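Quick illustration, no need to memorize.
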Amino acid sequence: MRIRILAVLAAAALATPALAYIEALKSMKGLYAETDVIAKGVIDAVSLEKKVMIVKVGKSLKGKPAYERIKINLGAADGWHGEAAVRHAVVGAPVAIFYHKAENSDKAGIGMIYVNRFFLTVQPDDEMWRLLRIELAMNKVFAGTVDELVDLSTKVLSGRAKPPAANDDYKPYTKELLDALPLPPKEGEKWADFDAAKAFKAQ
């Protein structure tokens, strides 16, 4: 009983910053404000069998990353989200890393990885981060390429641009839309054409 109470208290302590961070995901402005560290990255390795992705952390756009590599268990998510994330985890593809620091620590408390054209919410841990879910409705916030997100973030954080408003008329991602989404290219290669306005137009 005592162990269960301690576990609940620990979860509650973690939930407070996590909930605040998740609330910020409704806009790019909120995401930039609540994120302590933003960095470029690249998918360094993928195990399709274990559903594990390793991200190599690159240039920082905001804050100082506490990691050189991040191992993420994509299979930890419920339902079909893990399978969808694995499909788009292409070795050599660029990603963008966002995280809110844990209290009194430089390590991540809650984070997001932007893969291809969608956000993954991840729960950091010392050994391996865990995929919680794909943020299906965050295509309303941003649905461009990783390179476009990095460019936008650089301009916004330097004061040269304002965060774009959300496209509230977009319908959220579905399994079918993610299945049809072209896979991301390797870093430096050309992105496949994708008409977000057409794909996410509400019927």
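Helices lie at 2-23, 28-34, 81-87, 146-157, 175-180, 196-199.
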